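Design a sequence for this backbone.
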């Protein structure tokens, strides 16, 4: 037998017109937290891929002539090794710019023993044994040190996991608050339509049929508010991505969101509707069970 809705509630909002706006605000915040969490994960992944294919060689010695000789020998060796795509020396001007944040602008003078830096790009299809490579380089440049950025990458991954955990906690708290708001709205709707509900009981309507009308109405409000919140959140995310592109991709990473991230964002209004439906159902059934 086909179940039919009992439309005994008025067409106006049963819990006040503010409920969709409140739900929309919650979904808006969820969209921002979710979008930035996925964007951060993708940005860190791109940084990690780039750094995992780079090795930095630093030659530190007081004698300038020795530095130059060791740098030339190291460059010649590195560019002839398998698995090395390109080894290039960092210019003195760029090295000075790297030191200025630590020593202060204008404090890096020519009489300072500025280390010579060599950027090494590795072949992603070739495994590089850092210990063996270090031994080879130090055979021709004893004052050279090699860094594959592994320690920095570990810290970066740890920071990313922490930020993602915080974003997940924020989303859970927002969803919990949304469910609580829907429950309070349902109680308010029940209180304002108590007389109508009692009449429906006298006419033989079951608790499930009465709860079904509340479920339907709150689901629509959750879907409406969630859709508005998602549109606003996507607008902010697109605006931030456009602003980042104006600054330059090298300075600020793009908000590249994966397919999973986009699907999660698109699902937010539906999840908000389900959450309000569930909260309304549980609240109505509990309150109806208390009625005489």
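Sequence:
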């Amino acid at each position: 037998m086909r179940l039919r809705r009992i439309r005994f509630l008025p067409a106006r909002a049963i819990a006040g017109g503010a409920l969709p706006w409140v739900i929309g605000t919650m979904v808006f915040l969820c969209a921002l937290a979710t979008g930035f969490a996925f964007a951060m994960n993708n940005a860190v992944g791109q940084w990690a891929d780039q750094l995992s294919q780079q090795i930095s060689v630093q030659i530190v010695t007081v004698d300038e002539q020795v530095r130059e000789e060791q740098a030339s020998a190291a460059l010649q060796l590195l560019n002839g090794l398998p698995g090395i795509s390109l080894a290039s020396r960092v210019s003195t001007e760029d090295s000075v710019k790297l030191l200025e944040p630590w020593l202060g602008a204008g404090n890096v003078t020519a009489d300072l023993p500025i280390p010579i830096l060599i950027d090494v790009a590795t072949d992603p299809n070739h495994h590089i044994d850092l210990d063996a490579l270090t031994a080879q380089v130090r055979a021709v440049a004893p004052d050279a040190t090699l860094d594959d950025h592994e320690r920095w990458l570990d810290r970066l991954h740890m920071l990313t996991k922490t930020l993602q955990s915080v974003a997940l906690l924020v989303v859970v708290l927002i969803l919990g608050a949304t469910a609580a708001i829907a429950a309070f709205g349902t109680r308010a709707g029940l209180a304002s339509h108590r007389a109508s509900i009692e009449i429906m009981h006298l006419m033989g309507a079951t608790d499930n049929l009465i709860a079904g009308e509340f479920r339907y109405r709150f689901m629509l409000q959750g879907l409406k508010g969630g859709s508005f919140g998602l549109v606003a959140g996507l607008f902010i995310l697109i605006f931030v991505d456009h602003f980042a592109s104006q600054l330059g991709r090298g300075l600020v990473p793009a908000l590249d969101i994966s397919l999973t991230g986009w699907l999660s964002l698109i699902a937010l209004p539906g999840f908000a509707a389900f959450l309000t439906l569930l909260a309304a159902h549980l609240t109505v059934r509990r309150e109806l069970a208390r009625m005489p």
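Residues 61-142 form one domain.
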